[in-house]
Structure formats: structure tokens, C-alpha cells
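Recall that a protein's primary structure is simply its ordered list of amino acids. Everything else, from secondary elements to tertiary packing, is in principle encoded there. The following example makes that idea concrete.
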Amino acid sequence: MTTNSPASIWVKSSYSTQNGGSCVEWAPSNVTATGIIPVRDSKRPTGPVLMISADAFAGLVRLARSSAL
């Protein structure tokens, strides 16, 4: 984990709601330059950031879309 980067452009999950839904944000602009995707809690935008590989992020998306949750 790392601290939040103010230069990142964050994209909120389509499952997030305006009422504080429990979802995440990610910064896709970092993937091209680093191959790493920053992910954070959308309710804590100044909180810690999890840095994961593009493959790991794809796995998270597959899991979120599956009926296994």
C-alpha cells in the first residue's frame, strides 16, 4: 500500500452510489506508464492506496462480476 497521489485521475466504480455505497475507485491512467493500478476505497479518497498489477486487477473485476460473491 502507498499513500494517495493527488496527480492520479480516479474513476469510481459503476457500482458506487452517491449515498456512500461500498465501492472502489481506480486510476487507469497509471497502467500505461507503470503497469500498476492504484485502487482505493471511494469513501476514503485521502486514505491508503493499494497498488496492484493489471492481471490482479482483471482478476478482481472477474470476481466482482461473478456470482461467487
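Residues 11-65 form one domain. The mean pLDDT is 79.
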